[in-house]
Amino acid sequence: MPQKRGKPSYAKKDAVWGYLFVLPAMILIAVWIIYPMIFAFRLSFMNFKYLTPEKARYVGFANYIRAFSDDTFKKALTNTFKYSLIVVPVQTIISLLLALVCNSRIKGKTFFKVAYYIPSITSALAVGTMFKFLFNQQGIINRFLSNFGFHSVSWFEDPSYALPLCMIMAIWSSVGGGMILFLAGLQDIPSSVIEAAQVDGANGFQRFLKIILPLLRPTIFFAVVTGIIGTLQVFDQAYIVSRGSGGPLDSTMTVVLYIYNKGFRTTNANMGYPSALAFLLFAIIFTLTLIQKKFFDKGAESY
């Protein structure tokens, strides 16, 4: 009996329609992401100025070599790593704790979910304006501390406090998003596993350490990786606090803010140099992501 040959044609039609539906998004990605990346990578090996493009010339790795002798870039890189090393662990731990609270059987947990998540959808400009109002020299924080005998402090004008305040802003405005992520991970854990451990006599801390935490490993990996990528690309908090200058004394200068200043706040700038800095940052982020993946994969094998 001859076999029907209609199914392959339907599969081909489905594939064609699938590609047609995906095509507009692929065109947008190619035009607005892939092509600019290729163009920027090409610029990183050139001395190129938009006002005089006819004078562009190939300089090889000169822009990359220049970065290693740029003191401001080194300062920006140091600030960015400090920012990332503090913000990512703190926001991850707080997000996990908030998720545990919201996943428990407490009353009014819907209110807490909304209250914790609101800062995550608040614009960086609004958050920065609020913090500048709170930590102004005549602001609420200084007035409160004066009741205990502390002197008024210019928080955002002091190099010792400006970057830590940026960190506090980032943590406060990001833990809500992390909480939703961990809450989804917690609710994906089968309740039967937790109940079985409880029957076996495991207390709350043991259940968290031996069952919940290992099962949350993929969620933690995702939260840490995206957190590090986001913090290494920090721009808005530093820009708002310093009005784009990275001050005081470059204490809030980050890599992305420095790239922005060199490319768009410098008259007739050599766009090759900020392009090289951007790809150096990409190389750092990519390397750290691979290291984290290897670390988490090795940890998963032990369970």
TrEMBL record:
GO cellular component: a single term: plasma membrane
Gene3D superfamilies per record: MetI-like
Keyword Transmembrane helix: yes
Pfam families: BPD_transp_1 (PF00528)
Transmembrane intervals: 20-41, 83-102, 114-135, 161-184, 215-235, 271-291
Membrane topology according to the record: Multi-pass membrane protein
Chain ranges of the ABC transmembrane type-1 domain: 77-292
Keywords: Cell membrane, Membrane, Transmembrane, Transmembrane helix, Transport
CDD domains reported for this sequence: TM_PBP2
InterPro entries: ABC_transporter_permease, MetI-like, MetI-like_sf
Gene Ontology biological-process annotations: transmembrane transport
Chief localisation class: membrane
Subcellular location field: Cell membrane
Family classification: Belongs to the binding-protein-dependent transport system permease family.
Name under which the protein is recorded: Carbohydrate ABC transporter membrane protein 1, CUT1 family
